[in-house]
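Q: My labmate handed me this sequence with no annotations at all. I'd like to see what the chain might look like in three dimensions before we decide whether it's worth expressing. Could you predict it?
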Amino acid sequence: MNRTRGDVPNDAEARKSGSLRRPSGNQRHRLIIAGAVAGIALVIATAVVVSAAQSGSDGGIRKLNALATRGPDTAVVAIVNGQAITRREIDIDAAMLQSAQASGASGQDIAAVSKEDLLNNTIDDVLLAQAATTAGVVVTEAEVSQMINAGIVAPLSSSSTPENIRKLSLAVLAANGVSLANVETNPETRAAFRQFELDNRYVGQSKESRAELVAAAKATATIQTFPDVLNASR
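A: Here is what I predict for the chain of 234 residues:
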């Protein structure tokens, strides 16, 4: 994750630009991240934001459980070159960040991160993955399977994974309508991991910065957003 999804802004400039960043590399151990692809927010990898997550008292987990109980929410909050982003994706990102705040696992002021910030971050991710595909970047099915196993299946099948991490991870899976049993074969999960890796490779292989790549993609993109849907109560 040279730059990954749902990251909280590090400063006022990041909030202003809508570019949100997560710690990278050795700052994370792989577990979970909410990632958006094909209109569904899905678990992808890792991170510091959940490393000390609280259990049942965590409001973020309660929101994730509520999302799982409600069932699918296909309301569209943005369309990026024909690719939809749903309200559920952003709601799951917001719940994950609330868990980080509740646990003290994030030093950022999560309350300052709006749904618009999260949506802008998701749009950037979609644009980068689309640009990567156009540039010929390829992620194989075998690589996708390996990432899902390393990022989700193996940690959640291990007795060494703390119970609070397991609880939050399973809540995120459930909120996306996925279980540990079918996460590897779920098409949306696979699409999310593929997008995640496309973003990483595209940024990593380019001589330009992520911000420059996003700006170039936006210059020719068709993007529609629906703020009323994003902020509607439900």
